[in-house]
Amino acid sequence: MTLRIPSLSRGGRLASLRSLGGVCGLIGLLGAATLAACGGGGSGSADSQPEAGRWTTGDLHVHTVQSDDSRTTQTLDFVLGKAFTSHGLDWMAVTNHLRSSKYDHDGHLLPAPIAFAYGMDAYELPRVKALQSAGTYDKKLIFSGFEWDAPTHDHMGIGIFEGSGGLTSSARAAQEFQYVFTTGDESLFKPEDVARWKAKYSQRSNATAADALKAIAWLKENHPDTSYALINHPSRNPGKYTIADFRRMNDLAPKIVFAIEGMVGNQMEPDRGGYTSAYIDANKPNRTYGGTDLVVAQLGGVWDALLGEGRRIWNVANSDSHFEIDAAGNSSGYYPGEYAKQHVWLPKDSVGVAGLLDSLRAGRSFGVFGDLISALDFSASQGAGTATMGQELTAGAGQTVTVKIRFKSPPVNNYQRPVNSGNLGNMVPKVHHVDLIIGDVGAKAAPGTAAYDVATNPSTRVLKRFTSQDWTLESDGYYSVTTTLTASRNQYVRLRGTNLAEDVAGLTSGGEPLADQRISTTDNATRHDQINDRNYGSLWFYSNPIFVTVK
After folding, report:
1. Lower CB count within 10 Å: N or C terminus of the chain?
2. DSSP characters for 83-142?
3. Which residues are 482's β-sheet partners?
4. What are the φ and ψ backbone dihedral angles of 224, each rounded to 5 degrees?
5. Dihedral sign, CA of 415, 77, 64, 159?
6. C-alpha span between 159 and 157 (Å, rounded)
7. pTM, whole model, 2 decimals?
8. What DSSP designation does 334 have?
9. 3-state SS assignment for residue 475
10. What is the mean pLDDT of each run of 10 residues along the chain (551 residues)?
11. CA-to-CA distance for 11 and 7, rounded, in angstroms?
12. Per-residue pLDDT tens for 50-76?
């Protein structure tokens, strides 16, 4: 089975230079059935028809001026333009902080600060609806979530939706969630709402780790099929999350807590990803490694420990866009779609938010920095069965499983020189090697046991490392390599790729990414270019795994 991911970029000079889709890219937005002829994904025999559907790109973590740490230039219209016109995304979640807002969507100062969930309702949602009703971004999927300061932890990206047909963002649920599970002063909320909530709840739950679990339980009780809770930049601050926290949250609500933002945003920070803890040995877990949180970047680390229990917990790449470079010379993050992309497969019958949620929950996706690749076909097959990212292949003990990897890179990415100038640096992204990583899958750790705190999977290893000497260039522009493994026990396989050689001073050692270091040059313009050069000089992609179950 062949998966082909067309480039859906369009709009603007940068996007036009990146366009790769050919016929498939052009017809991709006309409908999933049309795109079936261009390749799909799923299960079936190697000779079966491709699954009807299309690949899309998006971002689940984006801020506007309505967040208290954004900038007035980061208006909603500006961000939407960057995401969809400049960088060709197909979908995006606007996720402002669930705190107080003092601006409307267009940067106008409000008479007094309000709880953000009211600002979502009064400004953000109506503006998006008005734009789409007028034909602007009407073919794009835009929805509103929020970033929650989880008690005792770091941030979580929350989406809550309502409706029986097409799901829409629920401002009403966000308002109640904000009152119950944050420390926002009562004066930020409408008195009549406060009175109603006080009658419903004996107290607010916004102080302890148990309160964080209460919030997830609240989502499960009230929106079991129409909400998600994404664990954002998990290792940014020491001591905020443990693997036991991830297990508890996933055990409590596996349909809601199913993803970790491993490929974090804020990549234009001097401390890559905004991981600003002191540069001491004790804080090595609180660095990014090739721009990726150690939870995902460490071979045999936290993510592999979770996958090694058979947990369907996936990696996500986001921008965490607040602003790129402000008037004072501070830099924060790239715009949506500029540097980080999450590629998600949407089947033919996928509809709106509900369809996207289904694919995200199913792990039908991969994340990439700097458009290192724009397409990925990763499948495992045995006999008539085939599985792709997020899926499970069943094989008999001793049978041979064929693993096929196909990828494509664009002719140019979004690297600019100077940064944020609009002038392409004509950088050609090139994959140096792709690692096929394998790990064993055993029993799920039980609460209260020592295994619940184990954050490693010793069985995880690079099964094979492929370079240009191993893959071949096919007629459709994809690089392809095929290998086999013997199904001897329950395992998973996943991919990791980079533009870096195995041993690059300060960046990689033995093929493993090293901790990113701070760039502290005093001159603003020089520092910005150095940060940008660092980021585009260290590009990675991570696929979600395929599980191989032996029966």
Report:
1. C
2. IIIIT--SEEEEEEESSEEEE-TTSPEEEEEEEHHHHIIIIIHHHHHHHHHTTSSTTSEE
3. 404
4. -60, -30
5. negative
6. 7
7. 0.91
8. P
9. coil
10. 32 35 33 34 46 95 97 97 98 98 98 98 98 98 98 98 91 98 98 98 98 98 98 97 98 98 98 98 97 98 98 98 97 98 96 97 98 98 97 98 98 94 92 98 98 98 98 97 97 98 98 98 98 98 98 91
11. 12
12. 789 999 999 999 999 999 999 999 999
How far is Cα 304 from Cα 295, in angstroms, rounded to an integer?
A: 9
Residue 193 near residue 178 (C-beta atoms within 8 A): no
Decide if 261 contacts 316 (C-beta within 8 A): yes
Alpha-carbon distances of 360 from 230, 305, 356, 530, rounded to whole Å: 11, 20, 6, 34
- Cα–Cα dist 368/545, whole Å: 15
Q: How many CA atoms lie within 13 A of 1 on its CB side?
A: 26
pLDDT computed for residue 2 by the predictor: 32
Structure tokens at 399: 């049978």
463 exposure class (CB count in 10 Å sphere: 0-12, 13-18, 19+): middle
Q: What is the pLDDT of residue 165?
A: 74
Nearest alpha carbon to residue 375 among 1, 6, 2 = 6
Rounded to whole angstroms, the Cα distance separating 447 from 330 reads: 44
- Please list the residues that pair with 491 across neighbouring strands: 440, 548
How many other C-beta atoms lie within 10 A of the C-beta of residue 406? Answer: 22
pLDDT value of residue 49: 63
CB contact at 8 A, 21 and 36? no
User: How high is the pLDDT of residue 19?
Assistant: 34
Q: Which residues contact 4 (CB under 8 A, 6 or more apart)?
A: 24, 38, 39, 40, 55, 375, 377, 476, 478
Interatomic CA distance for residues 272 and 433, integer angstroms: 23
Half-sphere exposure of 135 (CA within 13 A, CB side): 0
Q: How far apart are CA 226 and CA 275, in angstroms?
A: 31
Structure tokens at 12: 């603007």
Question: Are residues 117 and 171 in contact, defined by beta-carbon separation less than 8 angstroms?
Answer: yes
By DSSP bridging, strand 392-395 and strand 546-550 are: parallel
Give dist(CA 478, CA 206) in Å, integer.
50
Which amino acid belongs to residue 297? A
